Amino acid sequence: MNKYLTQILVVLIMLVIAWGLFSLGKDNNDKPIEASVQQAAGDIVLPSRFPINEEYFPIRNWSIEEPEINAESGIILNIKKNGKQTILFDKNKDDVLPMASLTKIMTAIIVLENFDLEQIIKVSKESVFALGDKGHLFVGEELKTKDLLYIMLIESSNDAATALVLDGHIGYKEFINLMNEKAKDLNLKNTYFIDPAGLSSQNISSVIDLANLTQYTLNYPILWNILETSEIQIYSIDNKFEHGLKSTNILLDIVNIGKTGYTNEAKGCMLTASNIQDNYLITVVLGSDQREEDTKTLITWAKQAYLWQ
């Protein structure tokens, strides 16, 4: 009897040992793969024998410190091709500040969703004398809606923005209502519009709201086509008037699209979007004395502080 009990006990001990070894191997196999960082070089080194699922990119290199920017607020938002968002960096992302001519992004969206781009608009005296000295329009000239979008977005023309609203078929008050309704639909909780050009300091938003608005523009390739244009000639319907446009965005050599803004109250404002390894990298700065330098700092940092593939 004792002999049989001993044999059973030995078998049980062997089973326990086998289970322990199996569990140890399983734990090692299931352990997440982490990137090792060479502190001196600042490079991320991934174990070559372990394939990394693309959903884990970009991977942060913590040996690189966060950037410093002059702007009152700023953000880097990464958008994967499946629409998933990741905030890579932010400074006061929810602070509500004047957005100046970044307003015109929403103005363009309302036009794209409610206007026929081939519709001809006759420019009124009121539109021509809107504040701002870029994108001069002429009283009585006729332009396609699409061409007014080019003038408004490339040279940040206030009179073009006003012409789209005052001289279009919707009417000023209703157009502004549509802008604010769209902000609510997109859950832009910190955003409110008073005018279509951004002249009023009561046109307010936050960098997180504007980053989300920029993501929404992915629905409109024509908007991206306009914002990536550095120079273009636009003509009135009768070819009597010519508008030579040059983009206010001097960073088009390093970004896909961008929009600038400035008023004394808002100071320098800028948003950009770039394509990196099937990701969209969106940056926004508000309240900056050096909007281009801040934007370049954010983009450069994002490329260095993260491994993208």
Structural class label: alpha+beta
Specify the number of helices: 9
Q: What is CATH's topology name of the largest domain?
A: Beta-lactamase
Mean pLDDT across the residues is 87
What is the class of the largest domain in the CATH system?
Alpha Beta
Give the percentage of residues in beta strands: 15-25%
Number of domain modules: 2
Strand order of the largest sheet: 5-4-14-13-12
Query: Termini separation (Å)?
Result: 65 Å
Q: What level of helicity do the residues show?
A: 25-40%
Order of helices and strands: HEEEEEEHEHEHHHEHHEEEEEHE
Task: Give an account of the 3D structure.
The chain is of the alpha+beta class and 309 residues long. It folds into two domains: 1-32; 73-307, 3-Layer(aba) Sandwich (Beta-lactamase). Helices cover 36% and strands 23% of the residues. The protein contains nine helices and 15 strands. The chain has helices at 2-30, 103-114, 125-128, 145-154, 158-166, 172-185, 207-216, 221-227, 291-305; strands at residues 36-38, 43-45, 59-60, 73-79, 85-91, 97-98, 120-122, 142-144, 204-205, 231-235, 242-246, 257-263, 267-276, 279-288, 306-307. The chain has a five-stranded antiparallel β-sheet, sandwiched between helices. Strands 1-2 form a two-stranded antiparallel ribbon. Strands 3-15 form a two-stranded antiparallel ribbon. Helix 2 (103-114) runs antiparallel to helix 4 and helix 4 packs antiparallel against helix 5. The model is unreliable at 24-42 (pLDDT under 50).
